[in-house]
Amino acid sequence: MSKIKVKKQLSKLYTSSVIGNLSLTGAWVAILAARGYSLVEIGLAETVFHIVSLIFEIPSGILADVLGRKKMLIVSTVMRMIGDVVMILSNNLFMVCLSIAFHALNYNFSSGSGDALAYDSLKQASMESRFEKYESNQFIIYRLCSGISTLCAGFALTIGHRIAYGTGIVTGIIQLMVLASLQEVYADGHKPGSDSRVFQRLLSCFRESFAFLKEIRSAIGLMLCNSLVGAVDILLLFFLQAKLPEKGIPDWGLGLALLFMQLGGIVGSRLILKFPKVSYRVIFAVSVALVAVGFLAEHSPLYWAAALGGFIAAVGDDALQVRTNALLQDMFPSEQRATLTSVESFSFSVIMIVLSPLAGFVFTYW
Asked: Is residue 110 within 8 Å of 90, Cβ to Cβ?
């Protein structure tokens, strides 16, 4: 693949990320609450999301490596569109949970496929050193689109959940057209789905991936460190949505404060590119310190100090995420790249399930 084709490939992946992350339904918790669902019911829907993610995260990565990353990105978008349709038709908690399950599958099928396709495209053109910049750009897109989506919460409540989720179907169609134009690339020349022994290849990919993790244990350490810091930051920002109003932030300022905190991730994603030679241990230590500052600032009675703490924590989180993902992709073999990336997402989900109830207690009583 030539450098020009690689740039076009990455541009399409960026475009797909913007379309996929920019949504009127980003504040789905508020939408469900406005429909009359209790916090207990919403919490149950969140639990369904994590359970589905745990079950399908690694299998989705294996399917991407064996059948094709482009195909799984398309499947991911289809899952989101089905979830939107189910939510439009929903009139009870079961259908809401079913919709959330499809949105979890959307996350599963895209989590490892995009990074694997981008890295192998760069590696085929001997440009893999630019992956860290690609990852930085993807985190910027995610943070910015998440912040904008949060600001759209009021508009989504005004037009109603059916129209809001209906816009997701329209953008999904556009995203499918973008994904269809991608080129399937494997750095080692492997061709997905090139023979009839698909089941054997799925099992082989699974075994080889975990053989790699058993042999290269430093990869597991990187995954766990990154997931732990990321989980603390995400939980901090999540609970600040409820804490900031308690600290006296005016209604008009809540959305702006949430956007401000997301911008911290953009700063971190760009800042890490300025320190390519700094050791991972130093980056990890600084990131932990920044997240700790954010956690302590949450206990300030001043809402602006708590919001600033959320911003600082996001700086540390995304800086570490970008560096960790770049190091891991350098270590992963091409044939298991999406699978191993999914293992990282799996470890994050496990840590989130463990920390979520503990965080609820800590942020409520401490």
From this structure: no
